[in-house]
Amino acid sequence: MGKIRFIHAADLHLGSPFTGMKGLQKEQWKKLRDSTLDAFDRLIDYAVESRPDFLLIVGDIYDGEDRSIRAQHRFQMGMQRLRDSGVPVVISHGNHDHLGGKWTRFELPENVHVFGPAVSQTELATSNGDVVITGFSYSERHIKEPMISAYPPADKKEAFHIGMLHGSMEGDTAHAVYAPFTKEQLLGKHYDYWALGHIHMRQELHREPSIVYPGNIQGRHKGETGPKGFYDVTLSKQETVLSFVPASVVQFDRLAVSCGGMVHMNEVLEACRDAAGDYASRYGSAVVELEFTGMAPETAELFNEIPETELIETIREAIEADGEFVWIHGLSFEESAADFPLSPFGEQIIGAIKGWGIAGWKEVLNDLYRHPKAGRFLDALDSRSVDELQESAIQKIRRGMQTGE
Known about the structure:
This protein is of the alpha/beta class. The chain has helices at 26-33, 35-50, 69-84, 183-187, 265-283, 297-304, 308-320, 335-338, 344-354, 357-364, 366-370, 383-403, and strands at residues 4-9, 54-58, 89-92, 112-114, 120-126, 129-135, 160-166, 193-197, 203-206, 210-213, 229-235, 240-246, 251-258, 286-293, 326-333. The model has no long low-confidence stretch (mean pLDDT 88).
């Protein structure tokens, strides 16, 4: 048998709402709002130009179970372009776009195979061998039971076996549990490649056979930083070659700004402009959190005298004057710079927050998550998001008490 080549993508989240971005200029907001759709177009452009044997999309094609008409239309057009280019597509739906939702349906072209709620198989014939692909789509949003037991073991030695699974590894406390599995269970099926979805950070859990999360194709909030995209996979019975292809249109990130030796605010603003300009020249459009580092006490006093909202707006104006789309969504301060003495009451509050854990944060945010409109835009709380919330809350408390906000 020879080599086959395919694209492994997941978690497109077409139609993501991008909440909490108040203050963006009109053109910036349009670019961010359309970023998941435009990243999808980049995926399709790449597939049309490079002509892989097939394309896999492993769950959460759409951000919501209602599947907006605009997102569905864009997806349908992409599938038609692939049909015209002779590229088969195999897709599954995940917890966000499960089959139990209600939406206005679009008919997909004949080159697209959609897995149903039960684990099943589909076969593709390529010039270098047959391919057996196994997978399923979520019937409802929360599938907490393991589905891996329903996957049949590889039974055709002359064919390539690929498993598609949208879920999380058992024991992964950093993410909500969906269709859990263990690495040993996947390896026990003797497949040639495991195409995973659900985790938005790209990672390879195992080599030969490869067990791979490609991550999402476009970051959606500050917790999804860095380049996003998909994998171009070349697979033989001897080895797997993974090539990451960036697709994100707007990158979320954290941008460090050194303030060493600065005693005037204009110096700080100039450093922010330089950092943003350098970032834009390397990565393009971005939504970033600025982290101020290397601050001596006299520099910290500059920040302590200014309300944070006013400081953010001023930095945005300075950067926008250069024509860059590097939008500041928040500020943070290097711990050593922010760790000035607080009152016993302040330290007591911070100590209480540090002891909350996931259960405590869930209790505090319960009303927000139960809100009929706001709740649908919130991701499940996990250890990573709790750590980010805790860090942000502590910094705001420290800064608020130091500035009198």
